[in-house]
C-alpha cells in the first residue's frame, strides 16, 4: 500500500500543468556581453567592431595564423608537440638515457642479466689470458722436461678457481633470496 501511494505522488508531480508551462532549461538565451559592445557604434568603428565580433574567445590562440600547442613532450621535454609527433627530435630513436633508466628500474631481471654478461666477459678474458700464458709457457716448457707435472698443477688450479667462483655465486643467490624474503615479510 505504501509503495502505491508513493507512486501516485510522483505521478501527480509529473502530470501537474505547472511543469508544462515552463520552457525547457537552456531554451531561453540569457544576454551575453559581446566583445564588440565595448567599442561605440560609430560609423568609423565598423571595421574594429567586425574584427572583435569574429575574434576567437576560447581555445588556442593563433598569432599570425600559426597554431600554438601548449603541451610538453615526454621524451625531449620541449613544449609545442606531443610524444610521438614527427616534430620531436627523438621521433625515431627515442631518448636513450631515459629508456635505459626506465628499463633498469622497471625490469627486475635487468641487473641480474647485466651482471651475468659482465661475469661471462670476465671469464672469457681470463680464459684467453690463460691460453696465452699456456702457449708462451709451452714454448718454454718444450725446452724443459717437467712439462707434464706443471700442466696437471695448472689444471687443478683452474678447477679449484672454478669451484670457488661457483660457491661465491651460490652464496650471492642465497643472500639475494634471503634479503628479498625478509623485505617481503617486513612489508606484510
UniProtKB/TrEMBL annotation:
GO biological process: RNA splicing
Domain of life: Eukaryota
Region (Disordered): 130-188
Family matches, as InterPro entries: PAP-1
Comp. bias intervals (Basic residues): 150-179
Protein name: Retinitis pigmentosa 9 protein isoform X1
Record organism: Cricetulus griseus (Chinese hamster)
Gene name linked to the record: Rp9
Amino acid at each position: 500500500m505504501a509503495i502505491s501511494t508513493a507512486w501516485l505522488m510522483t505521478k501527480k508531480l509529473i502530470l501537474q500543468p505547472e511543469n508544462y508551462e515552463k520552457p525547457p532549461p537552456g531554451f531561453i538565451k540569457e544576454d551575453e556581453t559581446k566583445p564588440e559592445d565595448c567599442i561605440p557604434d560609430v560609423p568609423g568603428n565598423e571595421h574594429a567592431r567586425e574584427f572583435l565580433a569574429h575574434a576567437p574567445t576560447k581555445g588556442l590562440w593563433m598569432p599570425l595564423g600559426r597554431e600554438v600547442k601548449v603541451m610538453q613532450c615526454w621524451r625531449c621535454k620541449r613544449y609545442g608537440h606531443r610524444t610521438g609527433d614527427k616534430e620531436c627530435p627523438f621521433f625515431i630513436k627515442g631518448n636513450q638515457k631515459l629508456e635505459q633508466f626506465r628499463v633498469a628500474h622497471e625490469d627486475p631481471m635487468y641487473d641480474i642479466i647485466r651482471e651475468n654478461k659482465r661475469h661471462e666477459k670476465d671469464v672469457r678474458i681470463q680464459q684467453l689470458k690463460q691460453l696465452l700464458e699456456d702457449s708462451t709457457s709451452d714454448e718454454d716448457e718444450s725446452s724443459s722436461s717437467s712439462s707434464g707435472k706443471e700442466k696437471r698443477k695448472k689444471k687443478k688450479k683452474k678447477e679449484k678457481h672454478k669451484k670457488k667462483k661457483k660457491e661465491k655465486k651460490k652464496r650471492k643467490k642465497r643472500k639475494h633470496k634471503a634479503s628479498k624474503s625478509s623485505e617481503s615479510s617486513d612489508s606484510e
